[in-house]
Specification:
The complex is a heterodimer. By secondary structure, chain A is mainly beta. Helices cover 0% and strands 54% of the residues of chain A. The chains are: A mainly beta, B mainly beta.
Chain lengths: 113, 114
C-alpha cells in the first residue's frame, strides 16, 4: 500500500535547538518528495522538494531534507529553530508520472521563545 | 501570478443538508485540480482530482462528489451531509503535466456539520 509515515506528531523545542522531523514512505516506484508547512492562519505552502539529483535539498528559511533511498526516508532538518518556525509540517510523496499526492499525518512543531 | 480562491471560508450545516464548496484558480490554464480533507491527526486525505473539464477521479468512496464545469473551477458537493463530513477542506492545483510539481493550496473551508 502507498503511504507516508510521520512518526513525530507533536514536537516542542526551545529556540536555537536543532530540528529533525522523520518521514518514511511506502511506494512501489520512483517518487518525488515534498515537505509542506502550514503556519498558523496561513495557506499550506511548499518548504522544499526533491525530484532527482543531489539527495540533500535545501528549502526556504534554512530548512533542508535528505532523501535516503535505501531507507525510504526524507527527513527534514534545521540546525537552529526560531519561534517563527512554529507550524505544522507535512511530508508528501508523488509517484513520478502520476497525478496523485500522498500526505503524511503531519507534525505540529512548537518553538518556545 | 496565479491565485486560488475558495468559498465559503466557514460553513455550519445541519445533518442531511446539501453542500456546495467552490474553488477557482486564476492566472493559469489547464491546471490539475484537487480536493483534500484535513482532519486533526490524520493529515491530508485526497478526495478527488481532475486533469480536465468533466474529468473527475475519486479516491475515497463516500457521499461527496466533485465536478469541474469550467477549466479553472472545481466544485465539491454532497446531497446529504453526515456528521463525519465535518472537517477542513482544501483545494489545490498543479500545472498541467502529470506529477513532478508543487501543489498550490487555497485558504480552505472549515465545515461543521451539526
Amino acid at each position: 500500500a502507498q503511504s507516508v509515515s510521520q512518526h513525530n506528531h507533536h514536537v516542542i523545542l526551545s529556540e536555537a535547538a536543532s530540528l529533525e522531523l522523520g518521514c518514511n514512505y511506502s511506494y512501489g516506484g520512483t517518487v518525488n518528495l515534498f515537505w509542506y508547512v502550514q503556519y498558523p492562519g496561513q495557506h499550506l505552502q511548499l518548504l522544499l522538494k526533491y525530484f532527482s539529483g543531489d539527495p540533500l535539498v535545501k528549502g526556504i528559511k534554512g530548512f533542508e531534507a535528505e532523501f535516503i533511498k535505501s531507507k525510504f526516508s526524507f527527513n527534514l532538518r534545521k540546525p537552529s529553530v526560531q519561534w517563527s518556525d512554529t507550524a505544522e509540517y507535512f511530508c508528501a510523496v508523488n509517484g513520478r508520472g502520476t497525478y496523485k499526492y500522498i500526505f503524511g499525518t503531519g507534525t505540529r512543531l512548537k518553538v518556545l521563545a | 501570478s496565479q491565485t486560488i480562491h475558495q468559498w465559503p471560508a466557514t460553513l455550519v450545516q445541519p445533518v442531511g443538508s446539501p453542500l456546495s464548496l467552490e474553488c477557482t484558480v486564476e492566472g493559469t490554464s489547464n491546471p490539475n485540480l484537487y480536493w483534500y480533507r484535513q482532519a486533526a491527526g490524520r493529515g491530508l486525505q485526497l478526495l478527488f482530482y481532475s486533469v480536465g473539464i468533466g474529468q473527475i477521479s475519486s479516491e475515497v468512496p463516500q457521499n461527496l462528489s466533485a465536478s469541474r464545469p469550467q477549466d479553472r473551477q472545481f466544485i465539491l458537493s454532497s446531497k446529504k451531509l453526515l456528521l463525519s463530513d465535518s472537517g477542513f477542506y482544501l483545494c489545490a492545483w498543479t500545472p498541467g503535466l502529470a506529477g513532478a510539481d508543487t501543489q498550490y493550496f487555497g485558504p480552505g473551508t472549515r465545515l461543521t456539520v451539526l
